[in-house]
Specification:
Elements lengths: L1 H21 L2 H5 L5 H30 L8 H4 L3 H27 L7 H4 L1 H15 L8 H6 L6 H11 L4 H29 L9 H10 L1
Helix pairs in contact: 1-3, 1-5, 3-5, 3-10, 5-9, 5-10, 9-10, 10-11
Length: 217
């Protein structure tokens, strides 16, 4: 669920940014509001929409589970601590990657270029997905422990360790602090790239070029 959430809504954020560039509506928007708020608005609107959908699904099943004969308990009857972990690390992982997708969208002027620009990002998400998937039978192994502290993989690895393994509270706290500190850094960087790239048209901007331009600002 987290994997699909990041892929689908991340691409949605990137596409929204690129569409505004391609139809030049961004030129009007940036005259009335700070560019970083436009990016933050897209990201938080996406997570609000997703949160409402998930809340409706879980709440609806909790009320009507007897009519379903408890058939979906294995999927939707989630223990409180696991649900809390999903909220913290799922939201954190989504924010981390959504900001990166927004930055990737600002580097191109055509929607057909998004997949090319965001290809490396999507590959990283796929690698995390399969790395965690192959370690499900060993949630307390060294691979999972390392992945649970890395910001680009902790949203999945730590969630699995909480649900299927043994993890100390200090590990959860440290992992969450690292993740949200990284979100702050990535959000700041994405806002800079968004501001720099939104009014630049033509060929896609290389990420290395964007970083150099930001450094010189």
């Amino acid at each position: 669920m987290i994997f699909m959430m990041i892929i689908l809504y991340g691409v949605m954020v990137a596409t929204s940014v690129t569409v505004e560039k391609s139809n030049r509506s961004i030129e009007v928007l940036v005259t009335s509001i700070d560019a970083k708020y436009l990016l933050f608005g897209k990201v938080f609107a996406a997570i609000l929409q997703l949160g409402l959908i998930l809340a409706a699904v879980l709440g609806g099943y909790a009320i009507n589970h007897t009519f379903w004969g408890d058939a979906l308990d294995m999927v939707l009857d989630i223990p409180g601590e696991v649900l809390a972990a999903f909220a913290v690390f799922g939201i954190g992982g989504f924010l981390f990657y959504a900001f990166l997708y927004g930055a990737m969208g600002a580097l191109v002027s055509k929607t057909e270029d998004i997949n090319k620009t965001a290809g490396t990002l999507q590959m990283a998400i796929m690698l995390v997905y399969f790395a965690v998937l192959f370690q499900l039978q060993n949630p307390d192994g060294i691979v999972m422990k390392v992945c649970s502290f890395l910001p680009f993989s902790s949203y999945s690895a730590m969630f699995v360790r909480i649900g299927m393994g043994t993890v100390a509270m200090w590990e959860i706290v440290v992992s969450a602090v690292i993740l949200f500190a990284s979100i702050f850094g990535v959000g700041w960087l994405a806002a800079k790239i968004y501001r720099m790239g939104t009014l630049r048209y033509g060929n896609p901007i290389k990420l290395s070029t964007a970083l150099k331009n930001i450094k010189g600002m």
